[in-house]
Amino acid sequence: MEASSNNTMYVTYVEKHGAFVKVWGQVDKHYPISIENCLGELKPQFDEGHYALASPASIQIGLMCCAKYKDEMYYRARVTNVSSLYQNFVEVHFVDYGNKDIVPTSVLRSGAELSNILVTVPPQAHEFVLANVTHVGHAWEARTIALISDEIRYMNLQFIPVQQINPYLTLIKLFKNGEDYALSLFNRGYVLCMANVSQTMILQSINSTPPPTVNQTRVALPPPQIPPGIPTQMPQVAVPVAAPSQPTLPVQNTTTLLTFKGHTITPGTDHQVYVSYVSDGPCHFSVQLQRLEENLAKLMRELNRMELQPLEEHPLPGTVCLAKCVEDNNICRAVITSMSNNEAKVFYVDFGNTEVVANERLFQIPLKFVIMKVMSTRYALAGLENTTVTLEMKCAFKEFVSDKLLRMHSLPPPAKFGLPLCHLWDEKQNNALDVMRKVALLAYPESTTLTRGFCQEVIVSYVYSCSHFYVQLKSKEEDLRRLMEELQAIGPQAHPMKLSEAKTGLPCFALFDTDGQWYRGEIISLEGDIVKVRYVDYGNEELVNIINLRIPSGDMVTVLRPQALECCLNGYQNMSDDVERDTILEELILEKEFSMRVIEMHSNRALVDLIDSSRYNVGSLLLEKLALARSQVSPLLIQDSYQIEPRKRQSPNEKYERKNSR
Known about the structure:
Blueprint: E1 8-17, E2 20-26, H1 31-47, E3 64-68, E4 74-81, E5 89-94, E6 100-104, E7 108-110, H2 116-120, E8 126-130, E9 133-134, H3 142-152, E10 156-166, E11 169-176, E12 179-180, H4 181-187, E13 192-193, H5 196-204, E14 270-278, E15 285-289, H6 293-305, E16 320-324, E17 331-340, E18 343-348, E19 354-358, E20 362-363, H7 367-371, E21 376-381, H8 391-401, E22 406-411, E23 421-425, H9 432-440, E24 455-465, E25 468-473, H10 477-490, E26 507-512, E27 517-527, E28 530-535, E29 541-545, E30 549-550, H11 554-558, E31 565-569, H12 579-589, E32 593-602, E33 605-611, H13 618-629
Parallel strand pairs: 8-11, 21-23, 31-33
Antiparallel strand pairs: 1-2, 1-10, 2-8, 3-4, 3-7, 4-5, 5-6, 9-13, 10-11, 11-12, 14-15, 14-22, 15-21, 16-17, 16-20, 17-18, 18-19, 22-23, 24-25, 24-32, 25-31, 26-27, 26-30, 27-28, 28-29, 32-33
Helix pairs in contact: 8-9, 12-13
């Protein structure tokens, strides 16, 4: 998650969770795009029957695969129920969205032999429970859950963590348009309020069972930070709450009451370290102090020579134990993070990685091994707090730290419960942060993820035709304005790009000749001294002389994702260009604000409906305008005395007005 006081999630699914509302959301802005692109490329092969499962016998609960949904697209899924397998149907959980569905086995495709990203990237749908909310009456009404789903699904909403229930479930406050959404529901009579402490007690008594076969990681949540103007309290209503049943812990089984302690690394100190495991590139990794190297070796020798005793009872999440690694059969100290069927997900405290193991591979841990402090500590690389970390940067970081002795300078965490930060250098004094910034110059981060049902306010930034135009999210308008101001200051002083350095796909700063302003660009092609550049925040392409290109700074490449989102007007996806029609569309929409809803995704281009402030569909207005231009009676949306008037959006700053090269 990007380090920000304004934590946001893209809500993908809403369902009831006992007496509460569970919200599934994506908090990572990069992986969902990569996964969707990968599956989009594989769809033709899937549709032709490639990678079909060998036989029904290979379909078991927990199997990870790709499954076709009702929209004819494929998504990553986990098999959750096989009771109807004899009828060639199974229930699957779409792990990147949260919803479940019953699908025929014929639409399942193997994921094990496919792209690495489909196998290694954790599920992108994380579980949250809406704080302070419970149902009216004896149970949730289906229409109430449907209303909540309609109001927040497929939206980017701000949230604040209230309580971590377990490693996979978090109690949160959710905000829509700056208003506490739970308070809004209460004021409208759809819900009753419940105190956080009561919710926490009930939720902690429920055993969460996350997917056992995917490397699902805990969402790193910063401490609560209340945005300005948002109420912090809701009116409390007395709600009778049955005392949750507590599991009885036998006196002799003390492992569930024990916890490991870590070594304290004082901020501001330097240490020689090894990076033992990389969870999320430079944003989350584990280090081991070199001075503890012999202690760790001694511990591992003792653990792997001792006589092992199986756990006496079915363990609970949070139990400390010994576990036999699936990868190398070594015995390691571990904490159980979740249970499912006959398997457990464990966190290896001395190394920082997780693994799913069979219950038979779990053993009792003697007290003396619990008292010994753990050998790994989790960190994040300093200097990337406001950066969108790309997949290329994550790969480069993993290569930089792999099997190397590094010098680490520790820093305090940016927030009370956040990961501590650090700087890293290798033996040649290369700084990991410099490596990350250099890699950032190779490519922009992926644009904002658009999915079917996505609905937000947008500004149309450039129009080629009805089937090819670009929009910017209005919610990012202020961020783009600040970036443009900074760019005008640093662009002229940036290092000029030589022709020998220019390559297709490289980011650059480009001077737009018409208005004399600098913009972020991407090199499309080269011909002599003339470079074709696409302006990534607006969508238009220009021919620029090499003398007007500059090498960008890495932070300007990653601080904001490219803002130009490629779109096609719904109904015009199969139509060829028409100069008259496309010119009329440009007059209707360029630099104006609309409410946009994504109907479908075709590769990276969104098929959209645009609705203006008067609630008219642009597609219908275009037909009317075109009919009037051709002296025909408009067949759609003709109202008494209604006329279409050109509405030109005035930019708040003239220097950022449209760039029209056509």
